[in-house]
Amino acid sequence: MxxxxxxxxxxxxxxxxxxxxxxxxxxxxxxxxxFDDGVFLFKEGSLAYVGALANAMRERKHGDNxxxxxxxxxxxxxxxxxxxxxxxxxxxxxxRNDADAWSFSMEDMKNIVRKYDGQPVTEVHxxxxxxxxxxxxxxxxxxxxIKAHRPELHIKALTPVEYHYIFKKAKVSYEDxxxxxxxxGVDSMPGxxxxxxxxxxxxxxxxxxxxxxxxxxIHEIWHELGMRSNATILYGHIExxxxxxxxxxxxxxxxxxxxxxxTFIPLKFRNKENQMSHVEECSTIEDLRNYxxxxxxxxxxxxxxxxxxxxxxxxxxxxxxFGVDDLDGTxxxxxxxxxxxxxxxxxxxxxxxxxxxxxxxxxxxxxxxDTLYNVLQDYSDVVFEEDKEFRGYFELPVI
Length: 399
Ligand code: V47
Ligand code: SF4
Prior knowledge:
Low-confidence stretches: 395-399
Helix content: 40-55%
Shape: globular
Number of strands: 12
Order of helices and strands: HHHHEEHHEHEHHEHHEHEHEHHEEHHEE
Largest sheet: 4 strands, mixed
Oligomer: single chain
Number of domains: 2
Structural class: alpha/beta
Number of helices: 17
Mean pLDDT: 91
Strand content: 5-15%
Radius of gyration: 21 Å
CATH topology of the largest domain: TIM Barrel
CATH class of the largest domain: Alpha Beta
CATH architecture of the largest domain: Alpha-Beta Barrel
Bound molecules: ligand V47, iron/sulfur cluster
CATH superfamily of the largest domain: Aldolase class I
């Protein structure tokens, strides 16, 4: 159902309150929602209601375009000096599971990059645990090596959590450190480490790493250098709806100031192999509501991404009708953080054909992008070799 039809159905409900109509009117007239509107949506917005509004906004911004890229992930280590309660890499969890610990050497990391020589990937996503040996000189050397080895490969690397740690250790300011990282070849920053900005909740789940102000400041400096980054939220654990809106509000304010964020990625809390296993995971309905309200509230973010290995392919497809316009990537993966935490996909890798197929099956238009959202290829009319003999199912074009 297209957005115009679904909104008509929702607004035709005579039981819809005046407040629901007022908030819907704001969204449909491209007016900004207040903090209270955001909380209202979380508390009183049914899936159909927030979904119809988010879909309208998604289609206003992107039509049916659904973006993906071809990337690989590199995690230097799954050991960490920090002790985030939700994380299977935390030092306390790792002491119990020494057998599956790894820490790659410089040469190991170069070999992982070399493995993709000649393959059509456009991005390497580098993020992992925090350890003293992965310091500023180590990363400057590694980034410089990647750029010399494969200059066109986009390096999306490290979060304010790592940067805060390595700059402090090297005794350099955030400003100088970010300039050094940029000059060494880092092209953009992924969105991790944001978790929940509220200090009380952050203290309980991610006590000792960089705080909200430091996370936001590092992104701000990066944007001031003319660079782009992403943002995330870790939701569905012990936070309240007010905490979620507070998180979105802080991001929206920084985006007003710098315009440097490209995409927002809600990350669903998973409860395996961590110190929060007693906390129940939220439902798929809550996942979709959270995507939708994020889309509606973050009016100054161009893109909303679902990270399919974490949420699973089916929910990722559903999310494309609840505000999401980006499916991340083919993600040939050495990543373990999500599979250990109980994500839907244990060996996350999808071919381009499979990703394109996932998007087409729900009636959207697959567009391959680079990390900065330049369009590389529109797959609307592309017929893959494997599909030539195959006729007769769902939205795949009849050949
Ligand atoms: O910050 C750790 C999360 C994040 C769990 O920018 C968990 O394109 C859920 O930020 N349950 C890192 N989440 C990953 C990340 C990311 C992923 C994909 C794309 C991009 C991008 C960024 O992973 C951490 C943390 O919030 N995480 N443990 C867990 N148990
Ligand atoms: Fe370390 Fe990041 Fe895990 Fe926290 S979330 S323990 S900083 S790897």
